[in-house]
Amino acid sequence: MKATDTKAQAEVQSEIVEVTNKTKVGTWISVGVVGAVILGTYFILFGLYMVRV
What is the pTM of this model? Predict the structure, then answer.
């Protein structure tokens, strides 16, 4: 294996890590948004129930 191949492989690996980290940030943002919608819906429905009772 040539030294240049190892260098190129290291560069590709670092690019993959960067993409993976960006993907994780987007995933956590999406999870947060979905969680906020679920909690908001729960509180709205609970509030409507308490007003009725």
Answer: 0.57
